[in-house]
Amino acid sequence: MTRTILFDSPFLLGFEHTRDLIERAAKAASESYPPYNVEQSDTGGVRITLAVAGFSPDQLQVTIEGGQLIVAGKRDADGRSEAERAFLHRGIAARGFVRTFVLAEGMEVTAATLEHGLLHIDLARPEPERLIKKIPIRSAG
């Protein structure tokens, strides 16, 4: 199946960055673990909440790289190997993960809090500076 991308039009020059953002967002949307919520706060910020039950703060890492928020969790062995444990039912995922979110320009992480198995990541969008650029007018004559 061939996918046509809007930004491949010869009339849209210089939009490679936008196309790359869309492709990164599509890749991030295909991830399914761990589940998460995204909420709009009253102050105009955003809160991302990930369900990370069983992870301790030292097993989680939150970083920003290249305009992406990257949340990673790595499970350590708890002393007993998987073969030594006898699960009657195993419904809690015991695997590590990497989940990415593409951030708009200017978005800043203000806090990351682990509470009751939920990792809350608060983001703020500072008001952009209003730039006014005066263009001088030259006289041609």
Care to describe what's here?
The structure is a single chain. The model has no long low-confidence stretch (mean pLDDT 81). 10% of the residues lie in helices and 31% in strands. It has 141 residues and is mainly beta. The longest helix is centred in the N-terminal third of the chain and has 14 residues, at 16-29. It has a domain at 33-78 and 87-127: Sandwich (Immunoglobulin-like).
Largest sheet, if any? 4 strands, antiparallel
Shape: elongated
CATH fold annotation of the domain at 33-78 and 87-127: Immunoglobulin-like
Subunit arrangement of the protein: single chain
Work out the strand percent. Answer: 25-35%
Tally of individual helices: 1
Main CATH class of the domain at 33-78 and 87-127: Mainly Beta
Mean pLDDT: 81
Total strand segments: 7
Major β-sheet strand ordering: 1-2-7-6
State the end-to-end CA separation. Answer: 59 Å
CATH architecture of the domain at 33-78 and 87-127: Sandwich
Radius of gyration: 22 Å
Percent helix range: under 10%
- Find the structural class using helix and strand composition: mainly beta
Secondary-structure element pattern, one letter each: HEEEEEEE
Low-confidence stretches: none
